[in-house]
């Protein structure tokens, strides 16, 4: 039988052939590591076969590396992971990316880089060399550094002179990727995750904070103070919202309530594409009305007729309070639940189930974390898992969701969730899981979970003592919940067995 090393090699060989053939067919070129990033260098990935082949090559290469690298080296690389972040931040903050772009493909001697950004050349070279060892920058000749495809993503494409003259506005009007890195690192505002991660163990070893879902515990800033946010387009392409659900299914005039809609990132896209649907975008008063990025201002700029025509209404509403819009066709929540721990999510979702009609649909657009092993229920629903012997979730090449999860833990004492965790949240808040709408090649960062109002209002009005009696009349596969009493009543394995869980 062939060894895992051989199996991985076969996967790589086959995938390289597929990748080359697919890019030839689509007339695209495969990326060159030493050429700065351009959006067109990613065009090959639009072909689904090529994208999958690239994913397999990358996952297999990382797994091969894990097998053949001395474990002490691999372990230490993880132990010292923060060194790489620190080195990157030094380069990001000192505008190395812009300086190198201006130098062109020949690169620049570190003394000349340092002359521009005021850093010590000896030190800068140490950090850049470390990063170059991991293909972030490249040492073209001794002490002469240039960009790689990876490091070039830190480039704001502004002139370095302009940035040195006005560092505060470095990221204004840029593509947003460097800003996203700065979001993680910038000491001026959002370098919290980097520093907070150093205290993760202190938080978890303290009984007062270990199991707490309180947003005030284990997070450095008030959640509202950094909202409303504007999504980086590269992370959440507009198609993610359009593809998330079969919006055509809704009859004309149907109302979609965008709960915690922010500036309306999702509704702006949907309202433009589906003029026959109506939208109610809800957020806190401050997000709707105040500041440069107030929701109302953004709508008036982007689709001026949407509000005046009555297609879109903006409403100040706190989602922890009773939902004023009852019986909407769709309650839609995007990238909100990951800001909150379970107990808070249950409160938000319960307000929605109380307002929903039996025909209402709940759509959650959130990051859906895969397991690091096969997940039978998810694969039945079309979750694409990697071929053996790769990790089912494609391993390290697909770890963006877990990074987001860690960031949510550090920033908001909240989390990203797996399918099981979403089903559990829904069960606890008056909803019944219907489906995950997966499409081939979906990223984990925005997936759509559909739910409907749970048919458990009966259980809520029936006295707790009678639940078990009622449960006997349930179809074998169903369970009955009593939310207020914290009870779950279900059939046991044997006929006529009734299990009552929880206190009543
Ligand atoms: C991560 S943003 C997501 C925004 C939007 N759904 C999107 O995908 O672009 C979270 C949003 O929740 C809003 N929010 C926070 N607390 C809220 C509350 N108690 N009631 C209503 N909205 C709230 C914030 O103002 C922010 O716009």
Automatic annotation (TrEMBL):
GO MF annotation list: O-methyltransferase activity; protein dimerization activity
SUPFAM superfamilies the UniProt entry points to: S-adenosyl-L-methionine-dependent methyltransferases, Winged helix' DNA-binding domain
Domain O-methyltransferase dimerisation as annotated: residue spans: 79-154
Pfam families linked: Dimerisation, Methyltransf_2
Keyword S-adenosyl-L-methionine: yes
Boundaries of every O-methyltransferase C-terminal domain copy: 239-431
Entry keyword set: Methyltransferase, S-adenosyl-L-methionine, Transferase
Swiss-Prot/TrEMBL GO biological process terms: methylation
Protein's name according to its UniProt entry: S-adenosyl-L-methionine-dependent methyltransferase
């Amino acid at each position: 039988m062939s060894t895992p090393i051989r199996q991985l090699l076969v996967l790589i060989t086959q995938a390289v052939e597929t990748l080359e053939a697919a890019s030839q067919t689509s007339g695209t070129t495969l990326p060159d590591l030493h050429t700065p990033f351009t959006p067109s260098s990613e065009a090959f990935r639009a072909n689904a076969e090529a994208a999958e082949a690239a994913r397999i090559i990358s996952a297999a290469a990382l797994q091969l590396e894990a097998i053949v690298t001395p474990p002490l080296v691999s372990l230490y690389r993880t132990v010292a992971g923060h060194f790489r972040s620190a080195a990157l931040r030094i380069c990001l903050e000192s505008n190395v990316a812009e300086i190198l772009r201006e130098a062109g493909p020949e690169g620049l001697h570190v003394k000349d880089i340092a002359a521009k950004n005021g850093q010590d050349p000896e030190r800068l070279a140490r950090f850049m060399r470390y990063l170059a060892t991991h293909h972030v920058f490249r040492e073209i000749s001794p002490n002469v550094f240039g960009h790689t495809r990876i490091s070039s993503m830190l480039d704001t494409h502004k002139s370095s002179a302009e940035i040195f003259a006005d560092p505060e506005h470095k990221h204004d009007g840029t593509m947003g990727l460097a800003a996203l890195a700065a979001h993680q690192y910038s000491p001026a505002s959002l370098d919290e995750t980097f520093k907070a991660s150093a205290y993760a163990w202190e938080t978890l070893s303290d009984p007062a904070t270990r199991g707490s879902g309180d947003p005030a515990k284990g997070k450095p800033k008030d959640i509202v103070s950094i909202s409303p946010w504007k999504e980086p387009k590269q992370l959440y392409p507009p198609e993610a919202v359009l593809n998330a659900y079969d919006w055509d299914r809704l009859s004309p005039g149907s109302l979609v309530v965008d709960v915690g809609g922010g500036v309306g990132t999702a509704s702006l896209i949907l309202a433009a594409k589906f003029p026959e649907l109506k939208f109610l975008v809800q957020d806190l008063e401050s997000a709707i009305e105040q500041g440069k990025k107030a929701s109302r201002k953004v709508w008036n700029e982007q689709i001026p007729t949407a509000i005046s025509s009555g297609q879109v209404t903006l409403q100040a509403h706190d989602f922890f309070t009773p939902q004023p819009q009852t019986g909407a066709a769709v309650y839609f929540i995007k990238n909100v639940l990951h800001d909150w721990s379970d107990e808070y999510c249950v409160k938000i979702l319960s307000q929605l189930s109380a307002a929903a009609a039996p025909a209402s649909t709940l759509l959650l657009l959130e990051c859906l974390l895969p397991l690091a092993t096969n997940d039978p229920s998810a694969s039945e629903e079309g979750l694409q898992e990697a071929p053996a012997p790769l990790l089912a979730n494609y391993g390290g090449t697909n770890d963006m969701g877990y990074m987001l999860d860690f960031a949510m833990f550090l920033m908001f004492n909240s989390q990203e969730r797996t399918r099981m965790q979403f089903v559990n949240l829904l069960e606890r808040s008056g909803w019944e899981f219907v489906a995950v709408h997966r499409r081939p090649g979906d990223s984990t960062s925005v997936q759509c979970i559909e739910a409907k109002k749970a048919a458990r209002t009966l259980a809520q009005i029936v006295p707790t003592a009678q639940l078990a009696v009622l449960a006997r009349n349930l179809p074998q596969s169903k369970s009955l919940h009593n939310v207020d009493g914290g009870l779950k009543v279900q059939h046991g394995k044997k006929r006529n067995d009734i299990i009552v869980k929880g206190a009543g």
